[in-house]
Amino acid sequence: MAATIAYADVEVGTELPAQTFPVARETLVRYAGASGDFNPIHWNEKFAKEVGLPDVIAHGMFTMAEAIRVVTDWAGDPAAVVDYGVRFTKPVVVPNDDKGALLEVSAKVAAKLDDEARTVRVDLVVRCADQKVLGMSRAVVELA
To answer: 120, 49 in Cβ contact below 8 A?
Structure first.
């Protein structure tokens, strides 16, 4: 696969299609099994509250992975992302109800970095329950 978006067709300020990702307790248990991260703050409500959290929280790496989907879906190839970093600013609290939590992700092209390499920097805004949960969320993407 390769990126399907052409570098020449992208301008600074181009907005990527925003997406919302549901996060349920079941999702966290599945992620724990896949990642091997069985920290009880991600699945045990009693333990999470005992250590001062409001409730069970999503894994940080899971949150990052869900957020970057906006970029990989837009680019058309996950391998087009050549660099990605975030700062964790707030936990994603996942209540034990029928709703869970919703990650709301928007992104836009913030800079065209290198014409020869056809790379752009995409800045993401990741929110949950009206709070920014990832800060300085940026990806460098190689386009077609």
So the answer is: no
Residue pair 71/109 in contact (Cβ under 8 Å)? The answer is: no
C-alpha span between 137 and 44 (Å, rounded): 28
Write the CB contacts of 79 (distance below 8 Å, at least 6 apart in sequence): 1, 2
- Residue 1, pLDDT > 90, answer no
pLDDT tens per residue, range 72-96? 999 999 999 999 999 999 999 999 9
**What integer best gives the mean pLDDT of the chain?**
97
Cα dihedral 47→50→56→61 (10° resolution) = -90
Q: What is the distance between the alpha carbons of residues 93 and 25, in angstroms, rounded to a whole number?
A: 10
Q: Is residue 88 within 8 Å of 121, Cβ to Cβ?
A: no
**Dist. CA 128–CA 8, nearest whole Å:** 33
